[in-house]
Description:
Number of strands: 10
Low-confidence stretches: 1-28
Strand order of the largest sheet: 4-3-2-1-10-9-8-7-6-5
CATH class: Mainly Beta
Mean pLDDT: 78
CATH architecture: Beta Barrel
Radius of gyration: 14 Å
Distance between the termini: 32 Å
Structural class: mainly beta
Largest sheet: 10 strands, antiparallel
Helix content: 10-25%
Number of domains: 1
CATH topology: Lipocalin
Shape: globular
CATH superfamily: Calycin beta-barrel core domain
Order of helices and strands: HHEEEEEEEEEE
Amino acid sequence: MRxxxxxxxxxxxxxxxxxxxxxxxxxxxxxxxxxxxxxHSPRPGDAPNSLETKIKQDGAGVTIESVFKxxxxxxxxxxxxxxxxxxxxxxxxxxxxxSQIGPFMTVFKTSMDGNKLTTEWAAQVQGDQVQGxxxxxxxxDGRHMTLEIREDSTRGQHAEATLxxxxx
Length: 168
């Protein structure tokens, strides 16, 4: 159960930070750094606790490393699939990328437009096709990042959330 929860978190982070070839390297590098949840912004009650994310770009892609506290009840909403992972490297060529995350095969595809990273993702979870959409948006001053998350499943589940981060 704990592995499944960690895998769900991995999906959410992974999909949200992949970078496409539409943007410039300079713009992508603006996302590089350490990000923590903004304590002064609204946050969904089921959001990961104490989430800290490091984003780093290299010539081969984007690496996302996250630290978080698992939920007290041990249950992570499907919405955060991919968000809660310790480390994930994603290519930045805008092409479809497949990755095995625990028992789940996942597919990521990301593009960049200015200060926005947009990611589409898909996974098979317990016989259900799950799809998600993330938009990471960087503020003009580069000190705040917003992550809009949406998830839908073939079984009719739909969820949305927005997380606000500050650069640490």
